[in-house]
Amino acid sequence: MSGFDTLLDGYRRFRAEGWAQQRARWSELAEGQSPRTLIIACSDSRVDPAQIFDVSPGEIFVVRNVANLVPPYEPDNSRHGVSAAVEFAVTQIPVAEIIVLGHEYCGGCKAAMTRAFAGAAPGEGGFIAHWVDMLDEARDGVVARHGHGEPAERALEHEAVRVSLANLRSFPFVAEAERAGRLTLRGAWFGIREGELKLLDEADGGFRAA
Fold first, then answer.
1. Please, which residues bridge with residue 187 across strands?
2. How far apart are CA 34 and CA 104, in angstroms?
3. From CA 85, how far away is CA 82, in angstroms rounded?
4. DSSP letter at 2?
5. DSSP H/E element including 83
6. d(CA 208, CA 210)
7. Gap between the Cα atoms of 113 and 99, Å rounded
8. Exposed (0-12), middle (13-18) or buried (19+): which is 69, by Cβ within 10 Å?
9. Predicted pLDDT at 1
10. Tell me, what's the pLDDT at 2?
11. How far apart are the first and last CA of the chain?
């Protein structure tokens, strides 16, 4: 059975069970959405925020990309997918929380750590390299403290969350909403092997079990 056939089987189960059981909820969602939380997560197939947080349809607004990164505020004429999603979530919905969700065994963070695609052309790793170079400064600090290997990779996964939170605060409308108490920013990290969620304590920079 092909991958698409498997997906269609899943759709049919959803249509017969999940959608049917929550038909009233879907009718309500047809009138609009009002999620309270934006989650910025990795595109990794193992880290689905809806599954990790066990939420119903319409409860979370999600952005997923390589290494759950948020670029800094860059008001230019380029196309900014993450920035557009953040802007929509904060100024139009508006959400009350943003969670940056990192995870264990992140391939994007590993690419940043090893610089595996440095100098590659677009289509050969160049897009990946230019995306994860947002972590270059953090990576250098991790290597200075931990060297290379798995402990360093876990440390960089944590740093990716911190970098994205700092970059979120470079958006004037995010910073203003946070100062006004309308918006809370949080960092989290999910351990794939043990299924454990850890939360960032920004007071001391540590991650602790939820």
1. 100
2. 30
3. 5
4. -
5. helix 81-87
6. 6
7. 23
8. buried
9. 62
10. 77
11. 39
> DSSP 3-state assignment of 198?
strand
The letter for the amino acid at 194 is E
Please, which residues have CB within 8 angstroms of residue 61's CB and are 6 or more apart in sequence?
33, 35, 37, 38, 39, 85, 89, 93, 95
pLDDT > 70? residue 104? yes
197-201: long-range pairs with CB below 8 Å, 24+: 197/52, 200/158, 200/161, 200/162, 200/165
Which contiguous run of DSSP H or E holds residue 124?
none
Closest CA relative to residue 173, chosen from 120, 103, 94, 119: 94
Beta-bridge partners for 38: 61, 98
Report CA 14 to chain centroid distance, whole Å: 25
- DSSP-derived 3-state class of residue 35: coil
CB-based contacts of 31: which residues, under 8 Å, 6+ apart?
none
Helices 136-146, 150-168: inter-axial angle, 10-degree rounding: 140
Q: Quick: pLDDT tens for 7-19.
A: 999 999 999 998 9
Residues of the chain with pLDDT > 70: what percent? 100
Q: Report the C-alpha gap between 141 and 160 in whole angstroms.
A: 12
Question: What does the pLDDT average to over 82-105?
Answer: 98
Q: How many CB atoms lie within 10 A of CB 12?
A: 10
